Amino acid sequence: MGKKNKGGMVRRNPFASILATLLFAVLGFLVIFPVLAGALASFRPGVELLRRGLSINLNFSTMNLDNWKLLFTKNASSQKYFMWFKNSMVLTLVTVVLTLIICYFVAYGLSMYEYRLKNLLFFLVIATMMVPFEILMLPLYREMMSLGLMNTAAGVILPGLCGASTIFFFRQYMIGLPKELLDAARIDGATEYGICLKIMLPITKPAFASMAILSTMGAWNNMLWPMMVFRDADKFTLPIGLNTLLTPYGNDYDLLIAGSMFGIIPIFVVFLCFQRYFIEGMTVGAVKG
Length: 289
What we know:
Layout: E1 3-4, E2 10-11, H1 14-41, H2 46-52, H3 66-72, H4 76-112, H5 118-127, H6 133-146, H7 153-157, H8 164-174, H9 180-187, H10 192-203, H11 205-221, H12 224-229, H13 238-243, E3 246-247, E4 250-251, H14 253-262, H15 265-287
Antiparallel strand pairs: 1-2, 3-4
Helix pairs in contact: 1-14, 3-14, 4-8, 4-11, 5-8, 8-11, 8-15, 9-10, 11-15
C-alpha cells in the first residue's frame, strides 16, 4: 500500500512496485511459455517432440518448414484438417452470434424492467452456473436423441445458447446504465423494441466485445459435447479432428503440432478486433451493480 504525502497524493512503495512487476513477469512467462514452445515445436519434426518434449531451446539444425508445408499442401491430411477447421468456424460463428443476441435480450429483461419474480428468475439463472456440465450431459444427450438432433450442428449449438455467465455479465453491465434514457425515449415516442435495439444496444458495445471474445474461446475449444453429438468424421470440429490424429496405431505429430498452432489464429484475430473494448467491458461489468 502507498502512503499519502502532504498534498494528499498517494506515494507508491518502490519495493512493492518492483515485487508486483516481478510477479506479473513470472506469471506472464508461465502463460506465454506453452504457446512459444508449441510455436517452436511446429518447426521441428514430430520425432523431436517425442524425444525432448516441448521446449524453447533454439536448435536450428532440427528446425524446418516441413510441418507447415504438410499442412498447406493439398494432400489427404491437409484436406481433412481444413474440413475440421471450416466446421469449427461455422459452428463458432453461429454459436457466438446467437448466444450474444439471446443473452442480451434476457439480461435486458432482467435489468431494465421491474416486475414480480424478477429476482427469483435471476436467482434461477445464477443457480444453473452451479451445476457442472458433466451432470447435464446424459439428460442433454437423451433430449437431443428424442428431438432427432444427434449428428447435427443444431444438436451442438442449441444447449449452449443461453449461457448463465453471459446473461449475468450483461445484466451486471446494464443495471449500471441510466434508466432515464428509457423514460426520455418513451416520451419521444420510441417503442420498447426501438429503445432496446437503437438506444441501449449501442451503449453495451464493451459488454458485447468482452463476451464475444470469451464466447468465441469457449465455442472454438469445445470438445466434449461436440464429440458426443457428432458421429460422422466429416462433421468433426477442429479439437475433435486433432484428437483423432493420436491413435494406438500411430500418431501424426507433424500435422498435430502445426495444426494446433494454426488453430490459435482465429482466437487471436477476434481478440485483436475487440480488444479496444475488452478491458473496459470486463472492468465496468465487474464493478457495476
